[in-house]
Design goal:
Blueprint (H helix, E strand, L loop, with lengths): L3 H6 L7 E4 L3 E5 L7 E7 L14 H17 L7 E4 L15 E5 L10
Antiparallel strand pairs: 1-2, 2-3, 3-5, 4-5
The structure holds adenosine monophosphate and zinc ion.
The site of zinc ion (ZN) has 5 residues, from helix 1.
């Protein structure tokens, strides 16, 4: 499948890895919108939030726990951070492999990715 984040998950395209476990990978966004801007993805291809199914409910939990680890690793646990998922055209989703943006490291105000 021609999916850039699948290729990152498989190591075919390089990324700046922040965290990885069996099911999840987190890496720095290539065009950071904040001092800390990390993307957290499932290794399994899920195109968007609309594709989540009950069979993947454990994977959803893995992503949330990975986000907590990423916050710790990037040093924003106490200072605060924002988790965002863009779903579909009106939200400006560009990459159709599910990802959570973790933004932090500065006062965010109304800042959102893209
Ligand atoms: P979205 O608009 O929510 O689909 O966000 C896609 C994000 O992926 C954007 O913030 C891009 O900067 C980021 N991105 C695209 N290609 C790469 C890449 N090769 N490595 C890291 N981040 C990427
Ligand atoms: Zn994919």
């Amino acid at each position: 499948m021609d999916c850039i984040f699948c290729k990152i998950a498989q190591g075919i395209i390089p990324s700046k890895k922040v965290y990885e476990n069996e099911h999840v990978l987190a890496f720095h966004d290539i065009q950071p919108a904040a001092e800390v801007h990390t993307l957290i993805i499932p290794k399994k291809h899920i195109a968007s939030h609309n594709e989540w199914d009950t069979v993947d409910v454990a994977l959803l939990g893995e992503l949330m726990l990975a986000a907590k680890e990423v916050a710790k690793i990037t040093g924003v646990t106490e200072s605060g951070y924002r988790l965002i998922n863009n779903c579909g055209a009106d939200a400006g989703q560009v990459v159709f492999h599910y990802h959570i943006h973790l933004l932090g490291g500065q006062t965010l105000g109304g800042l959102v990715p893209n």
